[in-house]
């Protein structure tokens, strides 16, 4: 027992390092496979299975002839986790072996998911003991071969097996087949028999199996059952994904099935006729929540006959959903332009539609300026990405006369249309109206003239606004922004804002900021030290290198790992900065080279020593 405990202790000590699986560590583990105590061998096999190192596969295969059954059982399971179809022949003989090895082999073949195993497993389906386990394994493997085998067993022995469980297995296999499902004589009739079953679960499973298995006279009844079972679920059921033949019937069906018809039409647009889609659009009334699916079909099935229905659909849904249909307005702009002549809609909708069907930007701009204030703001926000129209607007006049009304929409236009000419006017009113969109615009446009205003507002605004200001300063960058961030970091007491300020400074940091980050590298917060390592690794110098060496031994694992990664992949030569640029002599430069090389070798030695101590436990 002492030997077993000693070996188990070694396994526990080495466990964390096996994840890395260096060659030496793997050799130590594999040597334990030859241990005379079976319990030690089993523990080793379990660990090798856990770390999933493919180099262990061949040594494990050698254990399949081990005299201890438990060792062989664990080996089979480990091979199932590590192997592929190449090890199937090693496992097949165990299907007719001891019960323990038999169940292990079935489980292992399921993990490998190799189609060649289906034929061997099929022979065991009628076994009263392992038959149910074999059926589940075959369903897990999936594919057409598994479906044929399970369907055959279902047709021949349906009365002797658990109906609900077996239907769930068939459903799983059928829904996993991505090609046309082969027709099996009598299978549809066997499923339709359960469409009237008093058990709701059996009825639903049978309906899904029937739909997935191919065309059947009971299709619509099965669809009705599935619809009732799923309730408000709008996602296309997996059993329908291969039934392109059902597209016309779904589109012309009751309202609760039409949405599935749209989704199936998007997968098979050639099976959806424009007339079927037109009829579906007229019957379907809940477009607002599901407009994405409808738009997807309308973008794939193009026909002028659909233009009136698209216009009707656009006018019925809410403003926030209409943007999804804007590409369609452009596709049918000729037809919609004619329809608008006599179409009864509000001015705001008509102007937005006109903007997307090619009406002159100047004409659109004039119509917008004639709207009442509230309507004008609404239309401007809806067309904020239409640069040609937005450039025609009198932004300077509006912002000077009514900044409170136009500030948000002007900032939105600046962001979406990229019209930088608006921003100088916005900057003037920034001190009085430090709204979030304006702060974000300053960062996105990298407006350096806004830096002083942003820094000033750091002292007065809410936490949420301060976080946004810090982020924008990081995007803008420059000497003033960096100094503002440094000053804020020195005086900041709130952890969240401190992290945001340091991260923002890291985005725009230059070599001039390295001394600041070297000082921060001794901060008690590991998150701060991690950012320091990231910044210092960008600017190689001896001073930065020394700090990185220190951080590579940081007590916080994530900091030491990230720093070691930077040191490992950064060319060490980059740290040998040529001092001649600072008028130093060749002798000075050579001394610095030697010093840095010594530091590099010392780092490598200490790193290797640390790994060795961890492995040996000393």
Model description:
Helix content is 67%, strand content 0%. Among the domains are: 1-142, Leucine-rich Repeat Variant (Alpha Horseshoe); 540-618. It has helices at residues 2-18, 23-31, 38-51, 57-61, 69-82, 88-91, 99-112, 118-122, 131-141, 144-157, 163-176, 187-192, 200-212, 219-230, 247-251, 255-267, 274-283, 287-300, 307-316, 319-322, 326-331, 333-339, 347-356, 361-369, 373-382, 387-390, 395-401, 403-417, 423-429, 436-444, 451-457, 463-476, 479-491, 495-508, 514-520, 526-536, 542-551, 557-569, 586-616. It is flat. The chain has 618 residues and is mainly α.
From the coordinates shown, what is the CATH architecture of the domain at 1-142? Alpha Horseshoe
Give the class from helix and strand content and strand pairing.
mainly alpha
Supply Rg: 35 Å
Largest sheet, described in full? Answer: none
What keyword list fits this structure?
mainly alpha; disordered N terminus; Leucine-rich Repeat Variant; 618 residues
Write the layout of secondary structure elements.
Blueprint lengths: L1 H17 L4 H9 L6 H14 L5 H5 L7 H14 L5 H4 L7 H14 L5 H5 L8 H11 L2 H14 L5 H14 L10 H6 L7 H13 L6 H12 L16 H5 L3 H13 L6 H10 L3 H14 L6 H10 L2 H4 L3 H6 L1 H7 L7 H10 L4 H9 L3 H10 L4 H4 L4 H7 L1 H15 L5 H7 L6 H9 L6 H7 L5 H14 L2 H13 L3 H14 L5 H7 L5 H11 L5 H10 L5 H13 L16 H31 L2
Helix pairs in contact: 1-3, 3-5, 5-7, 7-9, 9-11, 10-11, 11-13, 13-14, 16-18, 23-24, 23-25, 27-28, 28-30, 30-32, 31-32, 32-33, 32-34, 33-34, 34-36, 35-36, 36-37, 36-38
């Amino acid at each position: 027992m002492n030997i077993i405990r000693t070996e188990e202790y070694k396994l526990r000590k080495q466990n964390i390092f096996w994840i890395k699986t260096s060659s030496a560590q793997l050799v130590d583990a594999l040597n334990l496979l030859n241990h005379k105590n079976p319990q030690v061998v089993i523990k080793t096999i379990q660990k090798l299975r856990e770390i999933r190192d493919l180099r262990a596969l061949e040594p494990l295969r050698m254990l399949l002839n081990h005299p201890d059954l438990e060792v062989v059982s664990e080996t089979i399971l480990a091979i199932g986790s590590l192997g592929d179809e190449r090890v199937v022949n090693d496992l097949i003989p165990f299907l007719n072996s001891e019960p323990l090895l038999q169940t292990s082999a079935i489980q292992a073949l399921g993990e490998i998911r190799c189609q060649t195993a289906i034929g061997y497993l099929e022979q065991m389906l009628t076994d009263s003991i392992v038959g149910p386990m074999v059926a589940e394994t075959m369903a897990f493997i999936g594919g057409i071969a598994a479906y044929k085998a399970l369907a055959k067993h279902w047709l021949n022995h349906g009365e002797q097996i658990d109906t609900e469980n077996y239907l769930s297995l068939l459903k799983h296999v059928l829904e996993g087949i991505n090609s046309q499902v082969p027709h099996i004589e009598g299978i549809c009739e066997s499923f339709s028999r359960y469409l009237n079953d008093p058990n709701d679960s059996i009825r639903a499973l049978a309906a899904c199996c029937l739909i997935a298995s191919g065309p059947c006279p009971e299709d619509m009844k099965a669809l009705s059952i599935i619809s009732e079972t799923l309730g408000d679920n709008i996602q296309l059921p997996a059993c329908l994904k291969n039934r392109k033949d059902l597209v016309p019937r779904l589109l012309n069906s009751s309202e609760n099935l039409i949405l599935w018809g749209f989704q199936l039409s998007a997968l098979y647009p050639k099976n959806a006729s424009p007339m079927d889609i037109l009829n579906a659009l007229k019957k379907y009334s809940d477009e607002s929540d599901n407009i994405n699916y409808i738009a997807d079909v309308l973008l794939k099935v193009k026909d002028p006959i659909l233009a009136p229905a698209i216009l009707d659909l656009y006018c019925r849904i809410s403003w926030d959903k209409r943007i999804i249909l804007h590409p369609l307005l452009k596709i049918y702009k000729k037809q919609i332009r004619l329809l608008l002549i006599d179409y009864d809609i509000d001015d705001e909708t008509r102007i937005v539609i006109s903007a997307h069907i090619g009406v002159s930007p100047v004409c659109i701009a004039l119509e917008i300026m004639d709207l009442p204030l509230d309507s004008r703001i609404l239309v401007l926000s809806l067309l904020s990405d239409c640069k040609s129209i937005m450039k025609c607007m009198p932004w300077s006049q509006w912002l000077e006369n009514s900044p409170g009304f136009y500030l948000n929409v002007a900032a939105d236009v600046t962001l979406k249309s990229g019209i930088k000419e608006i921003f100088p006017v916005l900057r003037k009113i920034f001190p009085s109206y430090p709204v979030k969109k304006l702060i974000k615009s300053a960062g996105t446009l990298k407006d350096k003239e806004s830096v002083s205003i942003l820094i000033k507002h750091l002292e007065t605004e809410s936490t949420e606004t301060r976080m946004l200001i810090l982020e924008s300063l990081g995007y803008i960058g420059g000497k003033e922004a960096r100094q503002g961030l440094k000053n804020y970091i020195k005086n900041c007491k709130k952890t969240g804002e401190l992290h945001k300020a340091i991260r923002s400074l890291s985005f725009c940091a230059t070599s001039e900021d390295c001394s600041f980050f070297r000082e921060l590298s001794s901060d008690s917060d590991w998150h701060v030290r991690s950012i320091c390592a990231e910044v210092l690794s960008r600017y190689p110098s001896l001073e930065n290198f020394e700090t990185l060496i220190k951080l590579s031994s940081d007590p916080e694992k994530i900091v030491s790992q990230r720093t070691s990664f930077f040191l490992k992949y950064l060319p060490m030569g980059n740290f040998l900065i040529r001092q001649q640029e600072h008028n130093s002599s060749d002798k000075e430069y050579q001394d610095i080279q030697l010093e840095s090389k010594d530091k590099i070798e010392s780092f490598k030695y200490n790193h290797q020593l640390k790994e060795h101590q961890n492995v040996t436990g000393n």
